[in-house]
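HUMAN: Mind making up another protein with tokenized structure?

ASSISTANT:
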Amino acid sequence: MKKVLLFAVIMGLIPVFLFPNGNSSKYWIYFKDKGIKNQQQYRNAITRLKNSYNTHALARRKKLKGQNPFDYTDLPVCSDYISILKGKGIKIHRMSNWLNAVSVTLNSNRINEISGLSFVKEIVPVRKYILKRSNESKIARPKNARVMYSTINWDYDYWYSVTQISKLNIQPIHHKGFNGAGVRIAILSTGFELTHQCLASIQNNIMAKRDFLYNDTIVSYDPAQDSIDEIEEGTSVLSIIGGYYPGTFIGPAFASNFILAKIKKAGVIDTTDEDNWIAACEWADSMGADIIYSDIGINYWYTQSQMDGNTCAITKEADLAASKGILVVQPIGNKYNSTYMLAPADGDSVLTVGATDNDDKYLASLSIAGPTADGRIKPDVATLGEDVVYAASKALTVYDTATGNVDTTIDVDTTYLQSDGTEYAAAMIAGASALLLQSHPKWSPIQVKNALAEYASNISSPDNEIGAGIPDLYKSYNLGSGSMNGWRIIVNNDTIPFSDDTTIPENKSVIFGNVPQIGDLVSHYTDLDTANCLYVKIDSGLYVGDSSRIRLIDYTGTIIDSFMIGGGGLYYKSPDSMRMTDIIPQSNDYPSGIYITALSNDADSFYDYVKVSNINSGESITDTINPELTNIIGKIYPNPVSIESNNEMIIPFVMGNASLVRFFVYSMSGKQLYKREIGELKPGRYDNERSAIHWDMTDNKGRKVKPGIYYIIVNDGIHNSIKKVAITK
């Protein structure tokens, strides 16, 4: 059998210090203010900002800041200050509104002169490194992936990516149809190629591209200005997050929208990297990014004592991004880069990721350990960083070790590689975070961080090697994180804390907080027989006595029923299966759906997930997206809608199969009034405000339609899903 050696590296870089030559070096010049002289100027500037942002970006900011989504940090750098610096012959590279600073090339003998300007707060120097590459990848050949997981009936055949997907328990989230749709992920890396089989299908998901090295929109290989190596890193992490080629490779967030920023050259850590990171961060904010994934980390001109969350410019920027509603996901860094973490991993609002090995233990040979300089635990979470599989790029060169010649039989666009790195672990966490944001669109970055950590493998004793450990996405999805300690519920209009002794009237209790972790928690789907029954799987170590109580909780956290166990028809169906059944009273017309069950007695509590199919109402539900299902329009809102007081109508829907989606509006007489091609969509849920179809109630000529009854149609080329809507004055 022919042996191959692969000379392909992603983030394995060994620093070699290079002192600044000559008198001219790079500096950050920070300003004292923004040149705003009065409240009217401030209000006018804020108004201009609001008008320049897209609706997605505004909605994301309003999650945290309400109806005042902008503040002083968002205002632009004072143009008068820029003009003065340029007038003095100073070359300006980047401007940061959030930091109120510019990066410049400045002769060292002019520092005192510029520092003396009335508007200059401080000048901070930076330096440059050249790095050697070290880490080698290998061609991915997971031999037993299909065999190992063939007994699980998931919707997708992950094959190469199944191990990294399984580590985070992502399959049941995909199972429910969540795929990242409507979530915008910015990736700050090197260049990107989209010709690989698992990336070609997501080309329509790329909403923006920008090369911050050459100030153009070419992020792929440009032989006039790039090394071929520069597409390697960005291509690999994009595939890990969003690759999609069913039967071969699937990433967590394959239906997300991507914002691609090329901010660095391969093999060189330059002072421009920090400049470009900051510029790309603010650009991504303006594009509406919900998540920023960065595999660029910096500590080469910072000391370990400066990793305190408040010193590095890039860290300040990342924390500001979080304050504006963006989740920043950052690898803590690899040991062959450094002995201490890379900024902005030290940020307190940054989701910092470490790496584990195939046995779920700390990958000590690779992953940097915390804490931060001020003693905080880092990383926050960790996941698989060993033998992670990703798409090869055209930078791949394979040599036949027998002849020394390049092996030209390798098809790069169908080849997958394996390598180690915290950047790969962080890419998986970024994709997983998109699933939580899609399923919980009102969550803030901190809530996502908490949700990931709260049910992670090491949450009982977080440390500076893997933080809270490996998240369990299904538990995080179902139970959330929340900021409340336990439940707060309403009983007869009174808000009270919840405990197992709380008496809960049936159908009258609403949970404000999220379900806390009590006792053992499993992810298990039970089944329904032909009777209208609820099955609850019981832990064999849980004693069920007459004092036990069961509660049925829907996915919003609302208790829809609560009753005691024992003496009233609850019994073991089979001692072997350890299942207990109860006939759902026909008077309780439960909506069909997935529910949380809370089973408790005097000693313990147990949670599980059950599927209820209400045959009395004729409803049914599956715990998966059936590929044979038609596309289903959800609850359109507002409906009816007033055309005078509303700007648009929102049409949620679910895709059972990948297809080209078209949207139509017809009058009651059958006349087509509006048609729009939505594009090629993948299976999953498009049922929140961000991912749903938005119709502004105009016809094909842009005129508002008249009040009346209309047919809304979502079509995938085979099926039509039709609903009526009412439009009033």
